[in-house]
Amino acid sequence: MNLPDQYARLLSAYAGAIDEAISAIVDCLEGLNQEQVNWRPEVPGANSLWVLAVHSIANAEQAVLAVLGGAPDTRDREAEFAAQGASPEAARTQWEHSRHELRAAIARLSPEDLEREHIHPRRGVMTGHQLLLLVIGHASEHRGHAGLTRDLLLARS
């Protein structure tokens, strides 16, 4: 396998891992009403399923579209944690739009983009590889939080 093919496979793996983790978070909202989507466990620092979804999507967009892709960084991280959602469908719509943009942006990355150092607004200097691994780790962590939050929510009923 030549180097361009290896990079294409690697990019596909990065995109697939991000997609899988965030899709699982969004899936945790399915079948819930507005109150349930916005419910927070009574634990300091806990977030609602809506917040976990919005925050994970915004984190991926910032790293992939802005830091790696050069798009303007319009993220308002603090607003993500105060966000309230209307329905699971609203989260699904937001994710469906973003997932296609993210996959396309990742597919456009060159080997040089992956090897070069970039400046992340909170994490500092990282290579493209490190940024994508950071997004995967972050979304995977919140995937676990979302599953637990949904379990706690449904156990209340």
What attributes does this structure have?
single chain; 157 residues; mainly alpha; Four Helix Bundle (Hemerythrin (Met), subunit A); two-stranded antiparallel ribbon; 2 strands
Summarize the structure.
With 157 residues, this protein is mainly α. The chain has seven helices and two strands. Helices cover 70% and strands 5% of the residues.
Description:
This protein is mainly alpha-helical. The protein has one domain (3-156): dinb family like domain (Four Helix Bundle (Hemerythrin (Met), subunit A)), CATH 1.20.120. The chain has seven helices and two strands; from the N terminus they run ααααααββα. The chain has helices at 3-27, 34-37, 49-68, 77-82, 88-108, 111-115, 128-156, and strands at residues 117-120, 124-127. It has a two-stranded antiparallel ribbon. Strand 1 (117-120) and strand 2 form a beta hairpin.
